[in-house]
Amino acid sequence: MRQLLDVTPIATESSDATSASALQRRTYEEVLVMGQSMPLALLRLAPSQAVSVRLDVRGEVEVSALETKQLVPLGVSLPLTQIPERVYLLARTFSDELRDRSLEVTFFNVNNRELTSYKLLLTVLQICLDVDANRDGIVDENNPHKADWKWGADGYGAILLVNSDQDIDYSDDKQDLDDYRINGLLDFKDFSFLVIRRIGPRDLPSGCELRLSVNRETSRRIRIFDELDRSSGHELIGPGRRDATIRDTEQDLVLAVEGLHYPDIDFDGLVKIDLTLSCEHEQVYKDQVMFRVAPWIMTPNTLAPKTVYICRLEDKSNRKLIEELRKIVGKAKAQLEVVPPSSNQGDRWMQDEIEIGYTQAPGKLMYVVLDSPRNRGLDDFPEERLLGPNFGLVTRESRERANKLDSFGNLEVSPPVSVNGVNYPLGRIVFGGTRPEITEDRRRMMKVVRDFLYAQQVQAPIEVFSDWLSVGHIDEFMTFVPAPTAKGFKLILTSADQSYTILKQLESDGYGKAILREGKYFSRGRKADITVSEVLDDKTLARQNRRFQEFINWNREVLKQELGLTEGDIIDLPALFEDDGEGRAETFSPDMVNMIVLGKHLVIPKPYGPKVKGECQFEAYVKRVLEPLGLICHFLDDWEPYFRGRGEVHCGTNTRRVPFAQSWWEAFV
Amino acid sequence: MRQLLDVTPIATESSDATSASALQRRTYEEVLVMGQSMPLALLRLAPSQAVSVRLDVRGEVEVSALETKQLVPLGVSLPLTQIPERVYLLARTFSDELRDRSLEVTFFNVNNRELTSYKLLLTVLQICLDVDANRDGIVDENNPHKADWKWGADGYGAILLVNSDQDIDYSDDKQDLDDYRINGLLDFKDFSFLVIRRIGPRDLPSGCELRLSVNRETSRRIRIFDELDRSSGHELIGPGRRDATIRDTEQDLVLAVEGLHYPDIDFDGLVKIDLTLSCEHEQVYKDQVMFRVAPWIMTPNTLAPKTVYICRLEDKSNRKLIEELRKIVGKAKAQLEVVPPSSNQGDRWMQDEIEIGYTQAPGKLMYVVLDSPRNRGLDDFPEERLLGPNFGLVTRESRERANKLDSFGNLEVSPPVSVNGVNYPLGRIVFGGTRPEITEDRRRMMKVVRDFLYAQQVQAPIEVFSDWLSVGHIDEFMTFVPAPTAKGFKLILTSADQSYTILKQLESDGYGKAILREGKYFSRGRKADITVSEVLDDKTLARQNRRFQEFINWNREVLKQELGLTEGDIIDLPALFEDDGEGRAETFSPDMVNMIVLGKHLVIPKPYGPKVKGECQFEAYVKRVLEPLGLICHFLDDWEPYFRGRGEVHCGTNTRRVPFAQSWWEAFV
Lengths: 669, 669
Fold this sequence. Notes:
Mean pLDDT of chain A: 93
Shape of chain A: elongated
Number of helices of chain A: 12
Strand content of chain A: 25-35%
CATH class of the largest domain in chain A: Alpha Beta
Largest sheet of chain A: 6 strands, mixed
CATH topology of the largest domain in chain A: L-arginine/glycine Amidinotransferase, Chain A
Largest interface: A-B, 53 and 53 residues
Number of strands of chain A: 42
Structural class of chain A: alpha+beta
Helix content of chain A: 10-25%
Strand order of the largest sheet of chain A: 1-2-9-8-4-6
CATH superfamily of the largest domain in chain A: L-arginine/glycine Amidinotransferase, Chain A
Oligomer: homodimer
Radius of gyration of chain A: 35 Å
């Protein structure tokens, strides 16, 4: 409640300065914010002899009773008893000149003689901080939801991209967000906008200023740039700069904003920005907007492939495989991008070093690679060959030493699912960890990576059990393939049981002498050939596989529950494991589940199963269960370059896929 | 059909150069475009003694029969009789190294002796020119509709904005599009994008180049900029530059495109851009994209007002009106922007100098003022005070001298209508002209302006008859107000008949002495007072008004037909006209139809009609017919500053309104 009596008037005029009963006319100056009521303790101004008062207004200003909201009559003398104790002033239009409005309050005594007069000169300002809260790519004008967020197609709330790409060729691996300048026009495409609308008179009244500010936490998460009418832009807000004075302009001021960090355990992705109008160091008005920093999103196997990445090995051991793979990739209408030896340092495990996802804001789409903390020969590959214009990079590392579970063969995402009425329209992230009952030599994915995955929120992660595997990657026992069903996909699991069923049937049909892994070799020239009966007679192997099958079954139940699946949604593919000598599982033969899914084309490790009439019975089985889904099985021989290195062709490749058609802010509710 | 025999091989090897029957091995080099078949006249290569041929392929290349599409068997010798005469080569994946594929054709004689061998070394390139054909603000990847256009929510086709605003402060009235540079980041926001995707090997084979080109006509309509990774951008295509070589880059090349002209009589708004790959000066591949230049769109009275513009007159004659108007504008949640005398040169007719509309592309919205060729005192106002960041300007002028019908009081737009099953979701433009049967002293709106209006296409204009009015503006006899009906609006027409009905009723009720225009004056102190009976007794006035009423009726029928209206959609407001001495109509009293419509608030010229019990009977009538529609009538005294100058408050103002919620490309079908 404004107390004019406490403020020094800008002018005082007295009819008779020596007399105590002299008529006093005091003039004050005030700033009104358009549409914002200013309270005034009217009766507190009344001198003791006053019995009536007259209010005179010049220009578009309303005077109302604070409690009843009723307009106070103007230009007529009213008994003080009829005047509400507190009134408020409201202007609905801005001033086009300074002091173009006024309120004059004149008090009279019983003789209707003027006692005191207070004149309040008013300038009405319109200030407004705006963002694209309706997500159409255009900054709105005072959207009522500009400081708010709602998910869904009928939702609202502005969105910010993490400017994690590299739109100009820096001398090093620097990303656009590392720079406190806007680096060229391509860089600028990744920014969202803030508009400061100040229409009012062309100049602010003296002593008034506009400041933009954020809290300390937010200043680490974003940068805000001004002077976009120049070629570069000047940093107003950013790490170490929490607030800034807004320069005087005659027009709406457009500012550019970039995100610096993806959501994480200590950052929910929401940033608030304040615009404050102060006059004589007193805050007159504050406006606020909010952005949500767009999450990093993974792409499931059901999305169309664009590019498959594979390393060309110096020893040319995968040369033939590359050419075979290229043909399948071409049929899937995708591209094969071959990474030369100079960029892979002999590290063939392309799946493990990175996960290619994307991020998105209205009218903006950026592929973003999540670089794992694994950091082997391919460590520099994402920075050197993926990071670029519209291809961003993010990584999470800590002092913890990476273990095998930190490789991204251990990180996948399901197709869209609905679980007990909860929709996950972008699917759910699945990664492998350990089980609570395992107490020794436990391995989990690094905490900073897990925290990052959970913080993205829109693909609520599930941690399953992969620590039972020597290599410890979930791609060794599970994958997803598209299917013409209501759910749109099937979960594929490896199954030792399924292997034994097939092998036993073969033996009972008289094919006990059929050979698995025929003609293949392990290291030091050790032949891999083994007959069906030999496998079946191996009690140790059977016992090991029973144990491993239990772990698969445990995961099966978790996945059914967390992805809302039934048995009918799951397909078992035969695979055998053997103990690595330390109680963990290693694959016995090329592991078919560890496949590349490219639309309806499946690139499956050639299993070298037992043959009947020249036909591999594992391949025959797989075709029998997958072809009815419209899938095309390509069995690719990866024995030498990948299987013998304890991986498969899936581990040796990575796939960039078309993003979801639906935006994350509309899909996720 | 490629003829290898006509081309010089890059290498020739001969087993015995002196012998006529010597084995010849010729090596050629070719470029394949990914996904594009290359025909080859295989049998034309066969030497006369040949009876069989063998095709050997290295890398991902298919060889098929041109007619049957069947794959040709590879690596086996086939009788020439089994070989299709013409085959084609197809690669579905790009080369990651130069010459990573080959086709070898070897012919044999009856003794199966090798006769001739042709080796074709192949490099497969992927080039693609891309635009945002699905209109989500993001450039697509090879959208099948990228060179096409379809209206509607399920439509496609890329969109370009005319960069008609002024994002930096040039020293003169230059617009962004006048400059062959990108002027800062704000300027860049108005551009659309083209992406040239060239993935193939990092370097093009020597002798190959990529060119971007447009036809001569298109080069006048757009500018295309490269080098966006710098701070400015370099003009590749523009007036006088029809084609340009594309620089070598390792990544997708993003180019920025701006429109220079709105659609017009000689420009349908569609621009095509070609990307050509040539090797050794021979065109190998051409890709094409299309943009539609966004039209200029007008905003009907049913859209919410944002800003009302009015001139402050040097003589202060409209000072009171401005303050009254400001209060109404405030209630309508809009703003009043007062244009100082220095910017209006005493020209008060704000409605006539400009029409404020907008243009729009996905994620881009720009207000655009159409500056009329009228060019009186307000001529510089739009350039000096409206043109700015995100506020564009367009004008049409010709050698013709402007007449009164060229003022934009003569240009309005209807709310959305449906006429005989044809939807006009953005309404129809209405402007005034003459009638065919009038042969002398005809006036029409200037042809260049009419052509411009028709060319925008989405608000199909209607030319009505306003030449019967001395001032000649349609706002003198028609307007549209929002209404809670299925159509959402009512058409308001002036009616002399309605005036006479009211006046006759008043006389028969005994109010013949009631005074119209009471207490008002014309020039030179001539009193305007006139009684109801005096008006009714004036036979000349009655005859004139019967004639003018016929013209209004003619327009009524045209508007009913062209806007699909019934009598129930029309409201008649009383108004009288008198002959200006040259057979054209002038208003007799302030003309209520010439109102400002601000949401439900109507700013109506105070009519100074005859009073009964202190109440103006014209005002009473208007309230009776308009208030049931939820409209609030504010009668504003504009006699001195506007009516006496032959206009009303509507003529003295202009309104910027919120654009249509639906985009023009989705709405218009």
